[in-house]
Amino acid sequence: MSTLVQLPTGKAMTVRMAADLFLESLGNPNTVRNYGIAVGKTSKRLGAGRPLASVEDAEMGEALELLWGRSAVNTWNARRGAVLSWTGWCSERGYEGPKVPAWDAGTARLLPRLLRGRTRGPVFVTHRKPGPGKVVSPRDVCPDTGFARLSYGQARALLDEHTAVHGPGTGWDLHEYRHSSLTHLGEQGASLLMLMAKSRHKKPENVRRYFKPSPEAIAELTSLLAPGDSRR
Question: Is CATH 1.10.150 the right assignment for the domain spanning 1-111?
């Protein structure tokens, strides 16, 4: 249950106060220690004494980038996840403040690290080779490392693990990204057949909501009825 903290009269919630209150709310000493590294360094970078409400989202992203933008992938995920929990906790309690950008420079640099040393095969792979009793298609195995392609279920679980603020199952949903990509393609004028091919849907009615032809596409189609006459 959320607990509201009564601030002294005339006192604004500062970055340091928000960080301290968040860490005090954590019951597990190990979590306090691990989160304390990320939250403490981030609050110091932002300016511990400034009002929390004055911090912009972009500043939060920049702080994370400066602190851990060149760190190992696991370190980046852990530190960013801790700060994400902190900002989510503040939002729950009505403390106005920044949000962690969904995509920033540090995140953008993760892809080259995942591809380091590999020139072929699947992009997202597991951290271990398939067991001897598991049959995996050659196209689902990186020929350079022997690691298997990350399954949809594994990717979905990892995404939730690193973005959940309110416990397991509350993080970002991988399926939403699929819908977003189809929506963007539809807005760019992709045909219904192309959207079906991309999404692998077999029924047009399941994809039709993403099909949003642009005014230019409609005008071009209309012009076919009367070539050379744009008024019709």
Answer: yes
